Amino acid sequence: MPTPYDNPDYHAFIRHLRTEDSDLARLVIADWLEEREEAERAEFIRVHVEGWGCRTLVQFERCYDLMRKNGGTWLHRDLWPSHDPNTAGVTLWQSIYPLFTRGFVENVSCPLDWWLEHGPAVCRRHPVREVRITDRMPNLTIARERAMWHSDVIQEGYLYRLGYLDQFAASILPSVIYGHLVGRDTSWPVFPHCRYNTAADAVAALNAAALRWAEAEADR
Question: Domain boundary residue among 92, 114, 134?
């Protein structure tokens, strides 16, 4: 059965928050949800917005109670595996860590495979601003002067034949994510890779690419 979160108008609200974030826009969404019998979700957004940065004990306790009671539904338990529905408001995910900011999830830490499966749906429901992929590591050159990501097309090719696949496994990315990286080197087709000055730069590039991909899929 469709919910307000499946409504194209709600998706439009979320797209607006991605680019023109404001407390007023969040409160407008709260009013819209309340009109559609989502009173406690609307209250959570209002209390979170009004108390952000200087939340009183009463506001904190109310937010906690609302999340504990409704968190499983709000996070769409069919999309967020490995949690206990009886304590859904507490972050008990084994490897998935969503962080609410002013009423909505804006930060997600998760494995890449999980993001590939659920990221677009999350971005349709929340104005996600940062994704942190937790199970990938760039390949460092011998002199550690560069950090690289590799496309998964090499799994059947160059590295596989040389026997280096296991060594490079954590730095191999699916082509749908690799295609959103900035800095791809296309000069050597047999060894497609993206090079960055530091590992931190490479990780930041991956996180940004994962978010760009999910947003594009969410907007289809």
Answer: 134
Q: Indicate if 55 and 114 belong to the same structural domain.
A: yes
How far is 96 from 108, CA to CA, in rounded Å?
A: 7
**28 contacts 36 by C-beta, under 8 angstroms:** no
- C-alpha distance from residue 108 to each of 41, 67, 101, 140 (Å): 20, 17, 11, 26
The tally of domains found in the chain comes to: 2
pLDDT at 76 over 70: no
CA 145 – CA 147 distance, rounded (Å): 7
**Cα dist. 204→3, 27, 96, 210 in Å?**
34, 31, 18, 10
Which residue range(s) make up the domain with 27? Answer: 4-134
> Which of 91, 113, 134 finishes a domain?
134
The amino acid at 81: P
- Does residue 21 sit in helix, strand or coil? coil
Would you say the pTM of this structure is higher than 0.85? Answer: no
Instruction: Say which residue the tokens 């209390």 belong to.
Output: 47
Contact 79, 121 (CB under 8 A): yes
For residue 66, what pLDDT is reported?
A: 87
pLDDT of 145-166, one tens digit each?
688 898 887 655 555 555 555 6
Q: Do residue 151 and residue 128 come from a single domain? A: no
